[in-house]
Design goal:
The structure holds two protein chains of two kinds. Chain A has a single domain, classed as MetI-like fold, CATH 1.10.3720.10. Chain A is 82% helix and 2% strand. Chain A has ten helices and two strands. A two-stranded antiparallel sheet of chain A has the order 1-2. In chain A, strand 1 and strand 2 form a beta hairpin. Chain A is globular. The two termini of chain A are 29 Å apart. Helices cover 37% and strands 25% of the residues of chain B. The longest helix of chain B is centred in the last third of the chain and has 18 residues. Chain B is an alpha/beta fold. In chain B, 43% of the residues are buried. Chain B has eight helices and nine strands. In chain B, the strands form two sheets. Chain B has a six-stranded mixed sheet with strand order 5-6-7-3-8-9, with helices on both faces. Chain B has a three-stranded antiparallel sheet with strand order 2-1-4, covered by helices on one side. Classes of the chains: A mainly alpha, B alpha/beta.
């Protein structure tokens, strides 16, 4: 019942927004190349779905691959930090350096290094995800219970057992926070790198149609990328609900 | 025969802080022994040394002729911390099975038997957060027994539990001790806890931690009534005097 209510709320809010958008365009007679109405955008989406969908698939692929790499690397680094706390002081400045490099400036370099194909886009998505993912997961490592670690020591547990039975389940809520924050960023990373150097992907569709003043298609592509970002987020949210139960009470086995 | 032997143990922390100085005592097989002492007298440090969690000390500690590190690696030590350390994502029985899994002992029945022995089988499927802190500690103690260790080390397990419930936990603990006859070393700052539970009390003093006196406790029975008996209060008085003298 509660779920249905939330769903209904979302539908209503979206409907109101679209109606408002429609009315503004109608009442003020806004030109199509400045702001196309929602129906025009929808029409453009349907007409161009043969272009949008395959390109959306490419963007999704780049974003998810970059997202996975960033989170995997973050988890591995966090596990190292578990056993060598002092490493954190070295890793954080490097991560901040990565974070503060403007992605727009890095992408041309990535294209030179990795070529104009998928790998430079994946790298851009991974780079933009890396910092929030790492910071979140490291936060989980910081709050690891020292006495719990000692408990495993008393039982002469191996490092592998410590990781699988204690560390990983403990940092799971933080890992999910990392996955959620980085999911939408990954899409942004992929889009930006497609803007700069690509002949496929949603970013390319947006930028090329912008130059051609085909604004309805630009909007259709933007909304598609929104949908990708939102679905990505909710997929992770759904997984989190499946694996965790209640507040931080994780059921693993 | 002594199962735990502590001889001239001195532990110094890096900054020159002397936590323990020249500590000597031994514990017989099957005994229930308490270490009492004021806050910061190094009781917990001593327990961690015996458990092999901390090393780097002077003197000798032997558990059945083995040093603590060896005993720990052979999983001969049961240990319960001051706070419950049940994994929140596992239920009670899964928590008790944890040491079995780590030691790759494929005998989960042991966990059920042990829980049954203390009369807590009905809690098997409960999540830790559904239990009171006292019960969580009791489950932690049961867990530390599941690998059938040589000794059981308890670090102030009931320190944050109210008086009434604490007595209940004490009775549970005594029952566990009777049934398993496991050599138990419990650290506490509660004098009444020490007198109620143990056959022998090691009184420690602080700065640095030393053994002040070792007294044998001979109570005819251990139930709630004994808490108000003259004998019981006498023991309390003796320990109190010892600790007070030290403060002067």
């Amino acid at each position: 019942m509660k779920k249905n209510k939330i769903f209904l709320q979302i539908i209503i809010i979206l409907a109101v927004l679209f109606l408002l958008w429609h009315l503004i365009v109608r009442i003020f007679n806004v030109l199509e190349y400045i702001l196309p109405g929602p129906l025009v955008v929808l029409n453009s989406w349907i007409e161009n779905r043969g272009v949008i969908l395959p390109n959306a698939a490419i963007t999704l692929w780049e974003a998810s691959f970059g997202f996975l790499i960033a989170n995997l690397v973050s988890v591995i680094i966090a596990l190292f930090v578990c056993f060598r706390r002092e490493l954190e002081n070295t890793i954080i400045p490097i991560a901040i350096a990565v974070k503060t490099m403007p992605i727009i400036a890095i992408v041309p370099l990535l294209i030179i290094w990795l070529g104009p194909g998928l790998s430079s886009k994946i790298a851009a998505a991974a780079l933009i995800c890396f910092f929030p993912a790492l910071v979140n997961i490291l936060e989980g490592v910081k709050v690891l219970d020292r006495k719990m670690m000692w408990l495993f020591r008393v039982y002469a547990a191996s490092k592998f057992q410590l990781i699988t039975k204690m560390i990983f389940p403990s940092i799971l809520p933080y890992l999910f926070a990392a996955l959620k924050t980085s999911s939408s960023l990954a899409v942004v990373g992929a889009l930006i790198s497609e803007f700069i150097g690509s002949n496929k992907g949603l970013g390319f569709i947006i930028i090329s149609n912008f130059y051609n003043m085909n604004i309805p298609l630009v909007f259709a592509a933007i909304i598609t990328s929104n949908i990708i970002g939102i679905s990505f987020y909710y997929l992770i949210h759904f997984l989190e609900k499946k694996i965790t139960f209640g507040q931080e009470r994780i059921i693993m086995e | 025969m002594a199962i735990i032997e502590v001889k001239s143990v001195t532990k110094e922390y890096q900054k020159g802080f002397l936590a323990l100085k020249d500590l000597t005592f031994s514990i017989e097989e099957g005994n229930f022994v308490c270490i009492v002492g004021p806050f910061g007298c190094g009781k917990s440090t001593l327990l961690e040394l015996i458990a092999g969690i901390q090393s780097d000390y002077k003197g000798t500690i032997k558990i059945r002729e083995k040093n603590p590190e060896e005993a720990r690696l052979e999983r001969r030590i049961g240990y319960t911390f001051q706070r419950p350390t049940l994994l929140p994502w596992r239920n009670v029985i899964q928590n008790i099975m944890l040491p079995l899994e780590i030691a790759r002992v494929k005998d989960n029945q042991r966990a059920y038997n042990l829980l049954g022995m203390v009369g807590l089988s009905h809690l098997a499927k409960k999540a830790p957060y559904e239990l009171s802190e006292g019960m969580q500690q009791l489950i932690s103690i049961v867990r530390s027994l599941v690998l059938n260790p040589d000794i059981l080390l308890l670090d102030e397990p009931f320190s944050s539990i109210d008086e009434i419930n604490r007595t209940k936990m004490h009775l549970h603990l005594l029952k566990i001790h009777q049934q398993t006859n496991k050599t138990t070393l419990l650290v506490t700052h509660s004098l009444s806890e020490a007198v109620f539970l143990s056959e022998k009390i090691i009184i420690m003093t602080s700065n640095p931690g030393r053994t002040k006196r070792i007294i044998e406790v001979n109570l005819p029975t251990r139930n709630e009534e004994i808490l108000f008996s003259e004998e019981f209060l006498n023991y309390l008085k003796i320990i109190r005097e010892e600790l007070k003298n030290e403060e002067k």
